[in-house]
Amino acid sequence: MAIAGQFAMEELTLTLPATMQAAVYRGANDVRLETVPVPDIGAGELLVRVHTCGVCGTDLKKIATGSHSAPRIFGHETSGIVAATGAGVDEFKPGDRVVCFHHIPCGNCYYCQRKTFAQCATYKKVGCTAGFEPSGGGFAEYVRVMDWIVQNGTVRIPDAVSFEEACFVEPVNTCIKGIERLQPCAGETVLVIGQGPIGILLAALAQRAGARVITSDLHGQRLTISKDFGLENSIDASRVDVIQEVRRMTESRGADAAILAVGGNGLIKTALDAVRPGGRVLLFAQTARGEAAIDPAAICVDEKTLLGSYSASVDLQDRSVQFVMGREMNLGRLISHRFPLSQSSEAFDLAAHPQPSSMKVVIQPGNSWPASRPGSRRRNAEGNS
Ligand SMILES: [Zn+2]
Ligand SMILES: [Zn+2]
Question: How many angstroms is it from 18 CA to the middle of ligand 1?
Answer without folding.
Answer: 29
